[in-house]
Design brief:
By secondary structure, the chain is an alpha+beta fold. The chain folds into three domains: about 120 residues, Elongation Factor Tu (Ef-tu), domain 3, CATH 2.40.30.130; about 170 residues, 2-Layer Sandwich (Threonyl-tRNA Synthetase, Chain A, domain 2), CATH 3.30.980.10; about 150 residues, Diaminopimelate Epimerase, Chain A, domain 1. The protein is about 30% helix and about 25% strand. Strands 2-3-6-5-4-7 form a six-stranded antiparallel β-barrel. Strands 8, 9, 13, 14 and 15 form a five-stranded antiparallel β-sheet that branches. Helix 3 packs across helix 4, helix 6 crosses helix 7 and helix 8 packs antiparallel against helix 9. The longest helix has about 35 residues. The structure holds zinc ion. Zinc ion (ZN) binds next to helix 3. The site of zinc ion (ZN) has 5 residues, from helix 3.
């Protein structure tokens, strides 16, 4: 007999997943009444992608955009087109999860009885009810919507491919957070203060009261993945909400204070964790390989300090691996080495670069002194005032700094050789490739501050050099092509009239 293997498809939630543990709690069946958040289809069967239900209410939203609930300040939403009305629809039941427990809202579509599709851009919990925000398409109108979503009308709800992808990612990250927090608590006695299900594909994080050593991080990751490989099952226990139960104490821990749905859900990871939560959770942790980013981020607040431990799992982990691998491969290719050699090669390049920079600086200092000596020797000292000009070609991004080094060397040589004659020097520097956008820098210095200012003003007026100076130095620049026959001659003309 041929060997056969039966693999249970991952798209089916086991019937044991959702357990109403109170004998007095039952699922509301009146199709004109909404099932409260806590007992929604998305919470009873997190893998369900489609559902047929009935409309309970539909109205035009008073606000043009989905209200923020005060927690989504960072979320930027595009301004809606003035014609696109927003509807608020409550259904008897839904598979579109309204944000809660730190888990963002699902997106999806509603199908009305005439087959028309309506885009649910967000769902939110108002008290105990899930409200679907439907943005009308260009061709859709409010009157049709109000008729098609009148109380009792049959409505199809679907997550669609995008909606399910988004939900699967949220579930992987959310269930992983429960697992991670439980392991941190049992293994290290470290409590989770808060957590954030960040937007895909960034890593999510838990906030902890203290930092963890690399060994602790590795041990937590190993323990979490041991449970993952065991494939521990996850189920939900639902009962009536005990009014004495602790309401929400942090951003996403406990039961929100405005919740009026009347049920308490406890997410149970078999033998690992029991935690009150309204989120949608996978029926098993079997494919939630957890990766903890080894570097933690410290946060200092007014009264407390905490750290963020970042983690990845599920589709987000694969995306991260793909992008990290792509970056590493491309770096390895640039460095012409294998991936493992990249850090060493990059270090080499950085070290070499430092040495080269140092050598360039040393050579520049030597060259500046040589140019200064040449300049000083180029004009006979008996000539009285020394007026000099020198143009350079230099592709350095700091050409002016080099001209400045020449000036400094020149001044010290003048002092060294006890030159008494007054002097005025104009240095200029252009890049080798000349175009209308190339920049030529000009440095002017001399023994007489007044003359320096006079020549600076001439450069501004006659050569359109933009610049200024103070005391014995003046610097500026102009944009355009430098030609010795044009700019060089113009400069010489200005200098000819200078009388020192
Ligand atoms: Zn949770």
């Amino acid at each position: 007999m041929a060997a056969t293997a039966t693999l249970s498809p991952p798209s089916v939630t086991p019937p044991t997943y959702h357990r109403i543990v109170s004998p007095t709690l039952a699922l509301p069946t009146d199709p004109l009444q909404p099932i409260p958040v806590g007992l929604l289809a998305c919470q009873r069967d997190p893998l369900l992608r489609e559902l047929t239900t009935t409309a309970v209410s539909c109205r035009v939203s008073q606000s043009p955009s989905v209200p923020s609930n005060g927690r989504e300040g960072k979320k930027k939403k595009a301004a809606p087109a003035p014609t696109a009305a927003l509807l608020e629809i409550i259904l008897h039941d839904t598979i579109i999860f309204p944000e809660g427990g730190g888990q963002p809202s699902d997106i999806g579509t509603l199908t009305s009885s005439d087959g028309e599709l309506w885009d649910v851009v967000e769902a939110k919990r108002h008290g105990g009810h899930a409200v679907h925000y439907v943005r009308l398409r260009q061709e859709q109108n409010v009157d049709d919507a109000l008729r098609l979503f009148s109380p009792g009308a049959v409505v199809g709800v679907s997550l669609g491919e995008q909606g399910f992808k988004r939900r699967l990612d949220h579930m992987c990250m959310h269930t992983s957070q429960h697992l991670l927090s439980a392991v941190l608590e049992t293994k290290l006695n470290v409590e989770t203060l808060a957590w954030s299900l960040t937007a895909y594909p960034a890593p999510c994080y838990v906030e902890l009261a203290r930092g963890l050593s690399p060994e602790e991080i590795a041990a937590v990751q190993e323990e979490a993945n041991r449970l993952v490989f065991e494939g521990r099952s996850v189920h939900v226990e639902v009962e009536e909400l005990d009014p004495s139960v602790k309401v929400m104490s942090g951003p996403s821990v406990g039961i929100p204070s405005d919740y009026t749905g009347g049920v308490k859900r406890t997410i149970v990871i078999d033998g690992v964790d029991r935690n009150p939560c309204c989120g949608t959770h996978l029926p098993s942790i079997h494919n939630l390989q957890l990766f903890l980013l080894p570097n933690m981020e410290a946060l200092a607040r007014a009264t407390t300090s905490s750290v963020r431990l970042y983690f990845l799992s599920g589709p987000r982990l694969l995306t991260h691996l793909t992008s990290a691998h792509t970056l590493l491969t491309s770096a390895a290719s640039i460095m012409s080495c294998g991936a493992p050699q990249v850090p060493e090669r990059v270090q080499q390049v950085v070290d070499e670069r430092k040495k080269v920079t140092k050598r360039v600086e040393d050579l520049e200092a030597e060259l500046a002194a040589t140019i200064a000596s040449e300049l000083l020797a180029s004009v006979p000292q008996e000539a009285g005032g020394l007026v000099m000009q020198r143009h350079r070609t230099d592709d350095s991004a700091t050409a002016l700094t080099f001209l400045s080094a020449i000036a400094t060397a020149f001044v010290s040589k003048v002092a060294e050789k006890e030159v008494t004659a007054p002097y005025l020097v104009v240095l200029s520097s252009s890049p080798s490739a000349q175009s209308v956008t190339s920049t030529t820098v000009v440095l002017l210095f001399g023994s007489d501050d007044k003359k320096v200012k006079e020549v600076g003003d001439e450069l501004k007026a006659k050569m359109n050099v933009k610049g200024g100076g103070k005391g014995p130095r003046w610097s500026g620049k102009f944009t355009g092509v430098w030609k010795d026959a044009r700019e060089g001659v113009a400069l010489a003309g200005i200098l000819e009239s200078v009388k020192l």
